[in-house]
UniProtKB/TrEMBL annotation:
Family matches, as Pfam families: Aminotran_1_2 (PF00155)
Record protein name field: Aminotransferase
Catalytic reactions on record: L-aspartate + 2-oxoglutarate = oxaloacetate + L-glutamate
Keyword vocabulary terms for this entry: Aminotransferase, Pyridoxal phosphate, Transferase
EC class: transferase
Organism: Rhodovulum imhoffii
UniProt keyword Ribonucleoprotein present: no
Domain Aminotransferase class I/classII large: 31-392
Co-factor(s): pyridoxal 5'-phosphate
Highest taxon of source: Bacteria
GO biological processes: amino acid metabolic process
CDD domains: AAT_like
Length: 400
């Protein structure tokens, strides 16, 4: 009998973390590697946020807090939802966790029973299906391909719902594609959900503030108020505020669900880092002007990466509405052989050969549930992105 839990056999390590770790190891060994796998901004955390953390330390704010968040931070989160999303919550409807991932995991652990199904559109963030499996549920993967802009259609959602469906996980703008749903597109989905009152909505809005051009963000409970009582609206400070390492995420929803999530957290991590919570309070209540400046940089990088990847032979790269990822197709590369002799049988072979032969680390599409593609994070310097895309062009040009 194995000492390890059988639960572990149902899940796999995060491929995005694996790619980032591999790139770091190769760099440490002296290899010339450009890593495009990490999903975090290369900007530093704003000075006012860091100052708030230092001030909290100086005040002695280093003790336990309430299990699921400081009252002051919960109130700031309520204010944010009212201001930005026209959603009215009380602090009792808010939970704060050690990153957005923990809030999603807590919700699944608190609600799923064996046999419960969770609809996960693909491409998906790599952790969604595995968290469902860890919580004892069954992920139901529904493809949303490039022909639909990587967005789930109402017909596909309707077709995936069964009497066993408990959650629908929604992510816009998306990791890994950057695709953002317009209000009209989202309304089509919420109309479907209104016909199935047993299905709850988990809306992962982590990239809410990272959008470009005329695109306007919206979230399910805002678009369809009838879903308010069965929606968990999730967000955090990691991406827009360049605070990935501070590990603060939050969510708002029905009181009973929030209490159940708090029970899970009380027996796992207990409260998130006290100092990080005070920093998050400053993030949500302090100056916001740097977000637009950072977005301008991201948009410039996006446009450069899309143009250069579309110039690579065999690659097609759509223009995303938000986040800081592109998700190009390599359909034109499948079946060819690299200069180093690797047969490009799938996107994992493509990514492996690209790393070994050109020193560019990307995450292969199968990790996100849709192939043949790969994900590029353009949350790194212009110089690194230009060099990486030049190497990708050279790699593709050498395929025969």
């Amino acid at each position: 009998m194995s000492f390890l839990s059988a639960t572990l056999a149902r899940v796999k390590p995060s491929p995005t973390i694996a790619v980032t770790t591999k790139a770091r190891e190769l760099k440490a060994a002296g290899k010339d590697v450009i890593g495009l796998g990490a999903g975090e901004p290369d900007f530093d955390t704003p000075a006012n946020i860091k100052a708030a953390a230092k001030a909290a330390i100086d005040r002695g704010e280093t003790k336990y807090t309430a299990v699921d968040g400081l009252p002051e931070l919960k109130q700031a989160i309520c204010d944010k939802f009212r201001r930005d999303n026209a959603l009215v919550y009380t602090p009792a409807q808010v939970t704060v966790g050690a990153g957005g991932k923990q809030t999603l995991y807590n919700a699944l652990m608190a609600t799923l029973n064996p046999g419960d199904e969770v609809i996960v559109p693909a491409p998906y963030w790599v952790s969604y299906p595995d968290m469902v499996l860890l919580a004892g549920g069954t992920p139901v993967i529904v493809e949303a391909g490039m022909e639909s802009g990587f967005k789930l259609t109402a017909e596909a959602l309707e077709g995936a719902i069964t009497p066993k469906t408990k959650w629908f996980i929604f992510n816009s703008p998306s990791n890994p594609t950057g695709a953002g749903y317009t209000r009209t597109e989202l309304k089509a989905l919420t109309d479907v959900l209104m016909r199935h009152p047993h299905v709850w909505v988990m809306s992962d809005d982590m990239y809410e503030q990272l959008t470009y051009g005329d695109f306007e963000f919206c979230t399910p409970a805002e678009v369809e108020p009838g879903l308010y009582d069965r929606t968990l609206t999730c967000n955090g400070v990691s991406k827009a505020y360049a605070m990935t390492g501070w590990r603060i995420g939050y969510a708002a929803g029905p009181v009973d669900l929030i209490k159940a999530m708090g029970k899970i957290q009380s027996q796992s991590t207990s409260n998130p880092c006290s100092v990080a919570q005070w920093a998050a309070l400053e993030a949500l209540t302090g100056p916001q002007d740097f977000i637009a400046a950072n977005n301008a940089t991201f948009r410039r990088r996006r446009d450069m990466v899309v143009e250069m990847l579309n110039a690579a032979r065999g690659i097609t790269c759509p223009v995303p509405e938000g986040a800081f990822y592109v998700y190009p197709s390599i359909a034109g590369c499948i079946g060819k052989t690299s200069e180093g002799g690797t047969k490009i049988t799938d996107d994992e072979a493509f990514a492996t050969a690209l790393l070994e032969e050109k020193g560019v680390a990307v995450v292969f599409g199968a990790a996100f549930g849709l192939s043949p593609n790969f994900r590029v994070s353009y949350a790194t310097s212009d110089e690194a992105l230009k060099e990486a895309c030049t190497r990708i062009q050279a790699f593709c040009a050498g395929l025969k």
